[in-house]
Amino acid sequence: MAEVVFDSVCKQYDDVVAVDALDLTIAPGEMVTMLGPSGCGKSTVLRMLAGLVMPDSGRILIDGNDVGGLTPGERDIAMVFQTYALYPHMTVAQNIAYPLRKRGVARAERMRRVRALAESLQIAPLLDRRPAQLSGGQQQRVALGRAMVRDPSVFLFDEPLSNLDAKLRAHMRGELIELHRRLGRTMIYVTHDQLEAMTMATRIAVMADGALQQYGTPADIYDRPANRFVAGFVGTPAMALIDGALLFQDNRAILGIGGLTVDLGIRRFRDRPVGTWQVTVGIRPEDVTIGNGPFAARISAIEPIGHETILTLEAGTARLCARVAGSSLAAVGETVRFALRQHRLHFFDVVSGRRIDEIGLAVVDGKAM
Amino acid sequence: MAEVVFDSVCKQYDDVVAVDALDLTIAPGEMVTMLGPSGCGKSTVLRMLAGLVMPDSGRILIDGNDVGGLTPGERDIAMVFQTYALYPHMTVAQNIAYPLRKRGVARAERMRRVRALAESLQIAPLLDRRPAQLSGGQQQRVALGRAMVRDPSVFLFDEPLSNLDAKLRAHMRGELIELHRRLGRTMIYVTHDQLEAMTMATRIAVMADGALQQYGTPADIYDRPANRFVAGFVGTPAMALIDGALLFQDNRAILGIGGLTVDLGIRRFRDRPVGTWQVTVGIRPEDVTIGNGPFAARISAIEPIGHETILTLEAGTARLCARVAGSSLAAVGETVRFALRQHRLHFFDVVSGRRIDEIGLAVVDGKAM
Amino acid sequence: MAALLRLRPATSPQALARRDALLGLLLIAPTVLILSAVIAYPLATTAYLSLHNVYTPTLATEWAGLSNYRAILSGGTFWHALATTLVWTIGTLALQLLFGVAMALLLNRNIRLRALARSLVLFPYFLATVVAVLVWRWLLNGLFGVVDHALIALGLIDTPVDWLGTMPNAMATTIVIGAWKFFPFVVIAVLARLQTVPAHLYEAARLDGAGSWARFTDITLPHLSGVLGLVALLRMIWDFREFDLIYLLTGGGPLDHTRTLPLVVYQQAFGLNQMGMAAAYAVLMMLLVLAMTIPYLARARGRR
Amino acid sequence: MSGARPAWRAAALTALTWVLVLLTTFPLLWMLLTSLKPQTELFALPPTFLPESISFAPYLRLLFDTPFPRYFANSIVLATATTLLVVAIGAIGAHSLLRFSYRGREALATLVLATYLLPSVVLIVPLYLMMVEIGLANRLASLIIAYTSFALPYALWLLRSFMAAIPEEMEAAARVDGASRIGAFVDIILPQALPGIGATALFTFILAWNDYLYALVLVNTDTARPLTTGVVTMFVTTFNVEWSMLMAASVLMSIPPIILFTFFHHQLSRSIGAAGVRS
Amino acid sequence: GDRTGGPTILRWWSPQATPEQVASYREQIRAFESRNPNVRIVFEPTSDEGYPTQFAAAFAAGQMPDLVTHLPSFAAQNYYDRGLIEPMDDVVAAIGADSFFPGALAPFRAADGHYCAIGIGSTAVDMLWYRQDLLQLAGIGAAPRTWDELRAACAKVQRRGLYGTALPYGMNSMTSLIFISIIHQAGGQLFTPELDVAIDSPPTYAALDFYRSMREFCPPGATIFSWGECLTAFVSGASATGIYSGRVLANVAAQNPRIADVIGCVAYPTLSRAIPPWTFNDFPSLFIPKGARNPALAKAFAISLFSPDIYPTQLRATPGHILPTLKGIVDDPVYLADPLVAKYQREIAMMAKLAANGHNLGMESPAHLPNLRAGEIIASNCIAELVQRVVLEGENPRLAVGQAASRLERLMSA
Ligand SMILES: Nc1ncnc2c1ncn2[C@@H]1O[C@H](COP(=O)(O)OP(=O)(O)OP(=O)(O)O)[C@@H](O)[C@H]1O
Ligand SMILES: Nc1ncnc2c1ncn2[C@@H]1O[C@H](COP(=O)(O)OP(=O)(O)OP(=O)(O)O)[C@@H](O)[C@H]1O
Ligand SMILES: [Mg+2]
Ligand SMILES: [Mg+2]
Q1: Is A68 an interface residue toward C (CB < 8 Å)?
Q2: Is-contact D175 A73, C-beta < 8 A?
Q3: Domains in chain B: ranges and CATH
């Protein structure tokens, strides 16, 4: 277990700023997933921590020690790559044993540890095969084995599951969660997949354009996105983000969006300006209830997923999604009435994009009551 | 719009039977998605239809005409590949115009059509770039453009979105649905992704081991899976499949699974044998209701996904999942009570794996009432 | 080297990066060393000699200034030899590329005994040029040459052909034998590259209505362009400098119709014992090769 | 890639391929046949196709009455040493050009091609003077150095393009696993670059095996003379060409490159097949 | 090194290195070594075509061997002129100037009066070889003596599958050397004794005329013929006559024994009977480079090569081709012990005599000064070029000769 600290770390490639003054402290034993669009710098963060890439400035500390001068091999870190990077000319056993060999562990001991690990990963029968002879899932486990065999203090995963098919992915996700539970090591896990990010993490770091957007528990991220970017990025289908205005009358907040007027009741916001407040309102699909309610909308698309159905609604100029359980009998073009769960709405400053925090709203375990 | 018929089509590679006596009739204008595990023969089906691979036996008809003797170029089919297969040395415009050039369309006319298409696909500013200079989503649209430009009677898609990230995928999914709606052409779409399969299709074809398992509407497939394979394959998390026995007393069916006994009430099943019936019971996560109910289970895992949470339950020797809305306050290890929505249970013959159909159960639009 | 690598631990990322760069330089050092020793020295010597009158066997030198260059550029030999060299280079290079690419395409298909065919076709490249030329002279021999006799037996000709003694036969034969000798080089490189063309592109093109010729011009050829560029560049340089083959095959004849620049250089240096002139010719040749190379390299760098 | 293509076309193309291959190889065949003909049959008119009586005399004379075996041994040493040297220097050089960053890297990669600028006839004398200066004249070492310098630039380019195809992550993984940069190179890059190394080795070997001009000038003693100059000096004079001996020698000379190619060809096709782990 | 006490090493170079010759060199070396136990002689073959390159490099680097044999006399003259090789007067004296055929030493007398080399052998290159059987068949009783007779004979014997003769028309040294002979056989010369260019003269035009007229009796491929092709054309029976040295004898024995008894040779015909035969003799030389590490020993070895017990061995390696320069050898029992030499004793004796009176461009006649540019003139191919211009390209002989003359002048003054 190790604490990992990024202290205003910057990295620039030619004219691309890959990572921009990253400050991030990861507590020992966390399982952090990094989410963010392609090219936002996630891999660069991992690679700097591993020592494969040198930061331009800033310090990286593991358990309080600056690791800047250490080679990757000296940092006591294991990494699983998106492509697995298995050594194609070595057998599975040789692949897993490689880190031990490089650390001078004796042959017999190496064999013993590889065998024990293979048992626990259920790849014992594959030990003599070459990577090319394995299925994707098996390769994935070998890559894991190679990372686990020397019990490093930090594990790094760079989109390890992204090349697997859906079924296998679900299965491996379970195994990784189990691995973290069992070893209790600090892990950082980069992914594109929200389901993975949400289900595996103790904490999520959301990045965009080289900058950290939010760092918090999955519930934090989902229920209290720190800015418009995080709000729009996390959740499937995405939160509808609609520009509007907040007006205050006797401490009652009145929201105007795309022709609709919503009386939000008595609400108090931090940093409230005088007069009208230009805001972006975020509405998650599950916070739209269909059937009756004050508002009317036309259904412009219906996506049945089996256990639930996503309706796309057009209300005035606003476009938003609604999640309904099971199959839906509605048809495209139909008009329905809907309501919003007002206390689950999210507000962001139009200019800065930052979340507008409410005062006096009880937050219990990230779940607004 | 064209009807596509596979008439006992077989294809074998060396010792692998890739497609085994496929009989499938696709009505004009359908959007069919093909689902199935890796290597089940989906691509082979598309490639035979396109004329890239010759079937060993059987016939393929498009609008009643046997296309066996036609080259791919003569079949009036367009295909979008998983890798897009854009011609890397041609500009976007040249890529899109290529099928027209090969059909001898005059230069001016080509330019006109490419430009119009580019407008509608919103890639007009990219026309002079090379594929390598495009993002994944842009490449995808160029590939689409190349398929659309000559207005073929059948579109084939082989996992066209699998290389995109989640956000982009959702967006492109919407565009493809829109495309199908607008053009009304027959489309066949291979995918690994259930969400895609469910939301895009008018009908789904589920394959396994080269054989067609079920062909039906998304609701059919989800609500009335034809066999144990389809049941287990479609749905995330997967339907729990538990072996058990059905006992009949005065037309009441009593189900025994893993130590639990469930009185199913008066039920009539087709082909009921005398005595105990060895069956596999399928239970979808959304058909398990937590809180109270006749059964008790230990929570063995909790996966919060944001708008819902998946609980994994252990009840006796059985293991099943439950879907609950929002975040959950439960903890791993806790014991909870649960109920099953009995009319949504699925039964499969243990030996044949085939669905056991109930008699007299009203089925409205695939939704059991 | 080992000692250099075992530096004390770096103390900062910058030191680590510097150590890395040092290691990189160390790894390239042997290359630089060998090439500069074996190339730079002769290069400088050649430049020096070209400004002198030099008697080859003694290398006794006598300052001549630019007179060698003046003599070369004002005489007809250089220009004629240059034209000959260009005809030879372009001719044989074109044939090598044409035949090399065609053969690679054929060998890339699934044919019977493909591995054997692939080995056999490389054979001309294995053969020492000296031997290859002698074999060809034997094959084309005016009296006992099996080629003439075979052609006569087939009724294609009725008297032996003078393959090497008259124009344009001599140039054509030389070009063809050069192509035969060196086309396997193209085959090896192209064959390796062909295996990396994504199969999907061909399928897409077939769906788009492209026939086999269109697939070749629209997909295969553009994919080969990179490797063909490098191969063509190297072969061009090497063909331009080719000495053994032509010298042994025709000796430059008939008259001077196949006397390329390297033959002129050789004759100047060792026949006429005028090393200074030879060096001046060589320097001019080098400038020509440079002029041919630079556009390619500039383009290659631009692409990267 | 099968498709709606008539089978006769495939057959015709196969036939065409083999016809071309056999045409290309005909000189080899003729060489072999000539080497087996007795002297008296060589100048028969019209020439016989198959030897009327087979004679191994040229081979026996070559092997037992001439310095051919010594030349052969010299050539083997020469070509092998050159190949090893070029592959070793080229591999580390290519790795450096590919995976390290320092100033002038790209320029260097271009500059190495400058080796090919001067015609070899001109390089010879200065090269020989230099070899004398450093005391290597008339030694195999002088040829090894010369060949190394001529094979190296191409080897470098070839290896670089092969090694560029090895994912950078592979090396990163090894370094994270505790390997030094050199360790990762030896353990991971080298084994995977084997096909490229094979092709490079083949090209280099052939270059060293077949050179004539440098061998002619740089080496004058039988103890260091390679096959090309040895054979030509023995059997080709302005007055006469001993065809049977020359052809027999050529046949024997062709054996090592063919063995080498067969070996590396196997390597090549095998490892290309394995390269696609999870593409 | 002698100082280290090991054996003294002598290096011996020669471009004549067929396996038979190398075997005979071994024998000669063994004989010398057995008498001088502290000496080791290493024979190193050099290339026949590429020797100028090798020698240039070796001279430049000071890496010369101790003894060189079988280079043309004009090469020796040229090197000597540049101070690269030792005078050989003492060696000549030790062997005895009188034991040589008269004229055999003349080509090696340098402008300063010293001998720059010794002729280790001689060759009579301009022999007209003919097939007695074929000439008889065509009704020709005697071997041709003039060009007209030769032409007539060729015309008579030539038929499909049999060529009248085989002359070299290629861009090579043979064409140059043979055509120089032809000029002489018309009574002309390339240079005056004072080495002024004299090629533009009637004999040259006559020679060109003759040479062009012979083209139709030669195989079509004669346009690239050089030594090897001319030799095999006759030996194989493809041509009824040929021009070559005594090498024909050995090759007929090995390659076409069927005609061994029906071949004969005479000196090559001349324009008219008034003009005596003229044969090109390239006088294979023996010389000792200046840089030799042990000139004294090298000279001792050189002298031993001419000793009566060793010299015939050397000649027997190429019977009839390399002919003796020492008198009395043709009747020497050791020499005659060779079956070929015995069989063709008459022809060999005739060739030896002709060769001893032969000349070459290095010294076109006894009256000429040594031509130090002879090597360069041959290497420049300007004579072969003259032949090709007139014969192959049909250029105006006057223009072509004029051009050749000016090239010769340039070469002489370079
Ligand atoms: N070696 C490099 N040279 C130049 N630019 C680079 C290099 N590596 C990364 N970059 C750039 O740095 C930025 C961040 O790259 P990084 O790989 O960290 O993104 P990422 O978040 O991992 O993306 P993805 O999700 O696509 O893997 C990108 O713009 C990328 O193009
Ligand atoms: N060209 C081929 N040669 C040999 N076997 C093949 C070939 N193409 C496909 N196969 C085999 O045929 C079977 C079906 O392959 P196909 O590509 O149709 O599967 P798929 O359902 O598309 O799989 P995926 O989802 O992985 O793309 C597989 O077992 C595969 O290995
Ligand atoms: Mg990344
Ligand atoms: Mg597929």
Answers
A1: yes
A2: yes
A3: 4-233 (3.40.50.300), 240-365 (2.40.50.140)
